[in-house]
Amino acid sequence: MPLRKSLLARLLAVSVLVSVGSIAATAWLAAQTTSGALKQEQGQVLADDARIYDKLLGVGASAPQWRDADEAVRELSRSTGRRIALTTQDRKVIADSASRRTSLPPTASAVLDPLSVDTTLAPGRADEGTAADRIDPRAVGPYRLTKQERRVLKEAADRSAACLTELGMSPEVVLGTGGRPFVQLDYHSGEFMDSRCRMNLLDVPTASEQKALDKLNSLADACMKRRGLAPVRVSLDLTARSGPKPIGAAPTSVPVAPREPPPGDAATVPSPTPSYPEPAAGEPTDAAVTSCVDTARREQLGPYVSSPALLFITSSDGTRSTPGFSLSRDNTVRLAGLAAAVLAVTVAVTALAATRLTRPLRALTTATRRMKAGEAGDPVPASATRSAGEISQLAAAFNDMAAHRKALEEQRKAMVSDVAHELRTPLSNIRGWLEAAEDGVVDTDPELVTSLLEEALLLQHIVDDLQDLAAADAGTLRLRREPVRAADIAEQVAAAHQARADVAGVKLRATAFGDPWVTADPLRLRQAIGNLVSNAIRHTPEGGNVRISCRAVDDAVLIEVADTGTGIAPEDLPHVFDRFWRADKSRTRATGGSGLGLSIVRKLVEAHDGTVAAESVVGKGSMFTVRLPVG
Question: 192-216, pLDDT tens digit by residue?
Fold first, then answer.
């Protein structure tokens, strides 16, 4: 056999392909899983970094000297599993979550400055190009309201909200960082603001806020004066207006650091956004006003916030700042060697398994060739298929098939011998009588013709039985089905065999329980029941009984033929439907028959989708039961 067609070669090829595919798939899956895990971990790390930065930035914006920073650092470290350290610009430790002080990385993770927020770590605060956007809104400083001011403004805000609620709106009172309340409405409700609900108290600075605004305007005016520009007035919402006019006047105004809400928390119900005309010659520009106000705000808020600090975020052991993954050359070589080892082991195991698998197959092939050559041969030995699983089952099935084939061959030979014997007897009788008549030894009287006719009918009967069996085996046995009363079949068969029963001295009767009907070919069904009755009469001694009964059970009709004959031995009972089988091996005409009757019964019943079974007790009789489906 060519190597490319060998089962061993194909198994090896398949194993190699499977191994390569599995290794590649495993490597790809490992890479994808690792990559996904790293991305997820890195995303979590970035989210934790942003949370740590924002939390500590709020601590610095709320109080000077980084008060409460140590507690915040330890709490964040417990929740994130990271080491967090906060130091001054010259790397003096302010707070550190590590129990044992270890060295810090050479580069800080971020700089914490409440007056200069890093927008990359605070993505919610988009940098619009103005420096004021970099001031943390939690840096309230002197704009923080007193308890009394908060109470008064809260009552006013509640009254405004109640008024708006009566008008069918949905207001919400929100407290700013400095404690100033403001009424918040959705976009559409703000367009229908009623003047009756506007509380002027909410638009006017409190004493604390006015004092802080005066200080801010003083600092801003000094900046503008140094630049040779006209002074500006900054209102509570950080809108700067040119000229030394009181808040609320109508000269040219410049918006400074538009945010919601502004650090002074002076926001109330939204009002239409004013449009600002272009500055006239000699008036301050937007950039100059923004720069001076921002400088003034930083100068004013400086004493109230913490100074800039360095933030260090590393792993819990302090070895690295962010998770990473690298595959070194040694690791690459190790991974490649492991893959090669897996491939080699797979091929070796497959070769061993294939060798053990092909050994019993070769034994089966040798046995098949012997069988094809007509040699009986020995069955495949069990040792050749030991521990082979399905191959062992295949060998057992092959041995069963070989034994069955041998039995069928012996049966075929016996059948040919039986057919020859059955045909030889009547043919010999016919030939002998005809030669005697030709030689004048006997006269061709009616008795001779009757004897020859009986022998011819016997031949015809054997030929018809063989033809029926051949048609049943070929699947060409045709049935003309129609509704039939089972009782009619039983009575017709009894009437047809009554004469023979009388000659044998056997009492024959037909009995019906109810009125069962079946769908069957009446001619073929009478033939099957007739064969059973003929067989029963033949094996019942004089004075015995043969009974044909029919009845309905569940979804079937039973037709039973029982006799009080000699019975069948238990070891012979499984063979009664075999062709040319007789319990009496003497082949005498006393027990007559061709040995095909019961075989024909089984084929005819199976053609009707039914079954036939035999029960017998030696010396008491036998009963054959035909079971036919209803409909």
Answer: 455 678 777 777 889 988 998 999 8
